[in-house]
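Q: How would the structure tokens look for this protein?
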Amino acid sequence: MNEEKDAVPQTEEQATPKKKSGFKMGCYLFFKRLFDIVSATLLLLLLSWFILICILVKWLEDFYNPVYISRRVGKDGKEFSFIKIRTMCPRADELKEQLIAAGLNEADPPAFKMENDPRITKVGKFFRRFSIDELLQLLNIIGGQMSVIGPRPPEPQEVAEYTDYQKQRLAVKGGLLCLWQIQKDRNKLSFDKWMELDMEYIEKRSLWLDTKILFKGLYMVIFDHSGK
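A: Here is the predicted structure in token form.
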């Protein structure tokens, strides 16, 4: 991997996304929120039967709470309850600390990734392959904590390790899809490159870019699972 390409920008002008305001940005934010509400509500209504079946299947796998709720950090550093269908075994958070202590984290801290994470169940692997576990985040979108498009919301313990540069990704709402997620073999990218892509989104965000990410994301969910 090209180290120079993946390096965090060094100058203040490069490192700080320009703050956008004015009528054009106001229109963008209005239509973005309108799209979030309409699309998430319609999808939730259309897929409610499917979501309930998936929740039942997950419960039958180990007879443990099939809905996982955790704390995530959203816009301006505000924490919220992040909801998804559980894909891991019970006590996965405790096991994560053990895996980190054993030096098995394959991602750049503060992120955590393992190609063959032992905590993920058989049903969980299938759900993750097609991003089924994330369907409950439609509730977060309707509630205004998240958007369809935006940087993935991090966990509080990750944010505690952020540099001032990395904290700038919290300037916008977290989302289901982002620039990092539509990269091929995204889990092989460095954490610095991930942050760089989030800053690029914040700098260039527009209805056109959101549409591009949306359709590329749908393509990758259905056809390209290189990031799973």
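Residues 37 and 115 are 34 Å apart (CA to CA).

Residues 1-14 have pLDDT under 50 and may be disordered.

Upvote if useful.
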